[in-house]
Amino acid sequence: MLGAGIVGVSAALHLQERGRNVLLVDRGEPGAETSHGNAGLIERASVVPYAFPRSLATLAAFASNRSIAVRYRPATLLRMAPWLARYWWNSAPDRLERLGRAILPLIERCIDEHRHWSKAAGTEALMRGEGWIELYRSRRGFQEAARAAEELASYDLAYDLLDEAALRAREPGLLPGIVAGAVHWRDPATVSDPGAVTRAYAALFTARGGQFLHADANCLEHDGAGWRLPAGAEGWRAPEAVVTLGPWSNDLCGRLGYRFPLAFKRGYHMHYAPAEGAVPRHPVCDVEAGFVLTPMARGIRLTTGIELAARDAPSDSWQLDRAERVARRLMPLGHRLDAEPWRGARPCLPDMLPVIGPASRHGGLWLAFGHAHHGFTLGPATGRLLAEMMVGQAPFCDPAPFAATRFQP
User: Fold this and answer.
1) Which SS3 state, helix, strand or coil, does residue 382 take?
2) Which fold has domain 1-51+91-126+190-261+350-409?
3) pLDDT at site 15
4) What pLDDT is attached to residue 408?
5) 384 neighbors 113 (Cβ within 8 angstroms)
6) Tens digit of each residue's pLDDT (9 = 90 or more) over 46-86
């Protein structure tokens, strides 16, 4: 298992549960990269994929490159133009509905699959089941959100529409006079330390007899009889290898002759000390400003929206700095607790679905990456689906929409 983020750790646990001997490999510690830096949501209510915006007003706001929600590097945007065109095409309403139906079984299983491990891993105390809240500053934005929520009636999601008074009753730390209304999505679960959850799952894997190895997954070699990873005196051999390297998946896949249309929506976070006793009771998303405030074990985490930039380009504090200014007008925040902002890269494919399943030209090579905004949400469900496919069990949902062959015939 190459990559010890939430997807790799979850797949390792599911394979182990099904009797396979698994070696989990990462150059760093489990859960230290993209799995660590998110807003802590297990997003059961996200039944519609994050689509390319179709509103001309929204596109104009993003094009100005002054939006906190979406920021871009001009050179990167030019390189991404073909990818963005495919993303826009797949976001048409009929295609979006089809893609949403394809990923829905994973979304529906997301909380149950996390809870499958939480007691044994000791993470129950980190998980809350009270949902999260979307805030709208404008009356028009709130009304549009209410209509959009009503259109999801067939999914039987639980939510409350809150005026300012009802919102302040649920989030008394919010400053007055800022918000027109909110939607409280009550189905999702949240965690107070997503990196710690992933590390605990990895510790459960090793406690049950699994092996974890610090090594460079990009050194993987195909020797005809199987797969070899040079590490230590003799290296490691296995008949099967699984690529769960998140935003680094193409580095290895490219060496093996595959190239997937993987792009990156980067994001940042910073932790703050509480001020004036104000701490959000739920994750709170300022939709129109484009950031999330989450109560975390370390403090209040501010997580930014999307930065379209190369995966390894230097950090740019513009989004975080401006999000912080807006957030301080929404809720009192104390001093910064981190020396530098954390930065990560969400690995995204243009049809908003991950790759899950066998590679097309190498026997024994399996792939699971490209979960975009939902890696932490879908890691355990993805691990179950992949493990069922690998051991020949009937998969709990149709894996065909996630096939690698849609990009690599």
Assistant:
1) helix
2) FAD/NAD(P)-binding domain (3.50.50)
3) 98
4) 77
5) yes
6) 999 999 998 888 888 888 899 999 999 999 999 999 999 99
Give the separation between CA 184 and CA 181, rounded to whole angstroms: 10
Say what the pLDDT of residue 233 is: 66
Which regions of 230-380 does DSSP assign to beta strands (E)?
236-238, 241-243, 263-274, 284-286, 291-295, 300-304, 306-308, 333-336, 342-348, 355-358, 365-369
Mean pLDDT across 127-141: 95
Structure-block tokens of residue 53: 């915006």
DSSP state of 17: H
63: tokens are: 């094009």
Region 263-283: what's the mean pLDDT? 96
DSSP-assigned letters across all residues of 66-108: --SSEEE-HHHHHHHHHHHHHHHHHTSHHHHHHHHHHHHHHHH
Model confidence pLDDT, tens digit, residues 151-185: 999 999 999 999 999 999 999 999 998 899 999 99
pLDDT value for 117: 96
DSSP assigned state of 53:
P
Instruction: Tell me: pLDDT of 234 over 80.
Output: no
Please state whether the predicted TM-score (pTM) of the whole model is above 0.85: yes
Residue whose token pair is 């750790």: 9
Looking at residue 98, its amino acid is R
Average pLDDT of the chain to the nearest whole number: 95
> Please, are residues 127 and 395 in contact by the beta-carbon 8 Å criterion?
no
**Contact between 288 and 180 (Cβ < 8 Å):** no
How many other β-carbons are positioned within 10 Å of the β-carbon of residue 233?
A: 4
Residue 215 amino acid letter: A
d(CA 31, CA 237): 24
- For residue 144, the model assigns a pLDDT of 94
E runs forming strands in 175-256: 181-185, 189-191, 211-214, 221-222, 227-229, 236-238, 241-243
Q: Using only the alpha carbons of the chain, give its radius of gyration.
A: 21
Instruction: Tell me which amino acid residue 262 is.
Output: L
Q: Where are the beta strands (DSSP E) in 143-186?
A: 159-163, 181-185
Structure confidence at residue 55 (pLDDT) = 86
